[in-house]
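Posted in: Structural Biology > Protein-Ligand Complexes

Title: Requesting predicted complex, adenosine-5'-monophosphate-propyl ester in pocket

I'd be grateful if someone could produce the 3D structure tokens for the following input. Sequence and ligand are given below.
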Amino acid sequence: MNSSVIKSSNGEHNLANYESSASEFDWSQVEKQFSWYNTGKVNIAYEAIDRHAESGNKDKIALYYSDAKRDEKYSYQEMKEASDKAGRVLQDIGVSKGDRVFIFMPRSPELYFALLGTLKLGAIAGPLFEAFMEGAVKDRLEDSGAKVLVTTPELVGRVPVDELPELQKLVLVGENIEEDEQKVDFLTRFQQASPSLDIEWVDREDGMILHYTSGSTGKPKGVLHVHNAMIQHYQTAKWVLDLKDEDVYWCTADPGWVTGTSYGIFAPWLAGVTNVIRGGRFSPDDWYQTLERYKVTVWYSAPTAFRMLMGAGDELLKKYDLSSLRHVLSVGEPLNPEVIRWGMDAMNHRIHDTWWMTETGAMLICNYPSMDIKPGSMGKPIPGVEAAIVDDEGKVLPPNSMGNLAIKKGWPSMMKTIWNRPEKFNSYFLGGDWYVSGDSAYMDEEGYFWFQGRIDDVIMTAGERVGPFEIESKLLEHPAVAEAGVIGKPDEVRGEIIKAFISLRDGYEENEELQEEIRSFVKKELAGHAAPREIEFRDSLPKTRSGKIMRRVLKAWELDLPTGDLSTMEK
Ligand code: PRX
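-- Reply #1 --
Done. Output follows.
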């Protein structure tokens, strides 16, 4: 195994000292970096933006934003003023501490202003991925009891306003908006707003951001994070992203997902670096151009994107000058050794895998710069984090045993609760102290962790986490569908693709048109990325006696594997 180790490139922070004593790191050392250390009253948006504007960095570029139509830059001072103005607009329509303000729009500077403005008021921001369709939008706004939604004229049609009694205001970011009882014209009010705002100082455990994510059962759940998470965002920005003052950093994730907020907003701005946001869709040309144009030094992306770049060929890559790059990282799915080798050959960079989840709020297991990489391993827990492989009773297993990847309670960015569902929050823990991730893994003798798969039926497709239940429920709403079971099918580029097994109601005929119709039904109601790429019709689906579809059997069918114990199956 050692022959394939890629030696450390050393970063500014040599964490080797911590390696044998992860639990000795004291997070309160990090707190002392922040202005709130003495008062205990805090606001993450102040620490991320205003603090730098006030401390001699006001003219430093905080944000380079571009897409097909816009090309802009904002200094820390300009970001401070813009987020104050957005905060004013929201305050004027009644937003105050603890309110849920959802933001449903494509990436644009206004999205970031509105999100920071929301936080400055002590309200809770809820970012929604722009591809969500009506059903998905409704579930999230309803569960969170959102009071305000910031969106665009193009997307507002997907918001079933009449079915959302708690939603009071629709803030529309676009031209020529006519205001009424509910609609608010963001841009006009923003232009007129005063660039100063009294920040709401909150407790470190007060709610900050709500990200909806999927498990294998039930509707998507709202993972609530609090201001205190900044401690870990900041520290991992230093240790793992290796950010230094002069860095230009690009995280390719959309803020609809946790990577796009924890590491697309908070970590880089808490560290005071220049942050690049590129709007629009993925294309290899566009991405290489973005790296070249902004002279990006630190780049955080995902395996699917790296695999697509790899597939686009090295000729394309050679057309661009990527010499500014210093540090490359990945998250979201297993990073294949093959991709790491491509990174070394084509870019001359080690790609550093990092492991964490929506629920964990920040990175936990990582390949940081001062550490040797074993391709295929997610790395080791960062200092201050204790990870282990435990059995189903919470007993710690010895090295090289497969089991549940678990983290000892107590890292700063841990979720506070599951919105509306405290019992769901409790179900994450085994033996009181171990947070159980739902991933299976093993740890080798040297303390490196190796991802093996999900224990539940959650699907990771192109880095996005999709719950089979949400798709199955939607499929059942289609008039032709009698039963539906959804699984992730391994795929070389996307990690997994969504496959649905369906049995039809009497009177419907299996054919390609019906397949296509069912697929676009899910696309229209939930989101493009949630629609099954493959649909297979079966006369009936395997079920337990209580009527639950056995996804494990569907998976075995798909992979030509033995179906295992079928004793609970309905005969
Ligand atoms: O299965 C693991 C996978 O992504 C899941 C978490 O998904 P989500 O909450 O959407 O957050 C994604 C980004 C923070 C995990 O339970 N996952 C995440 N990182 C890795 C990974 N699988 C393998 N290797 C990783 N580095």
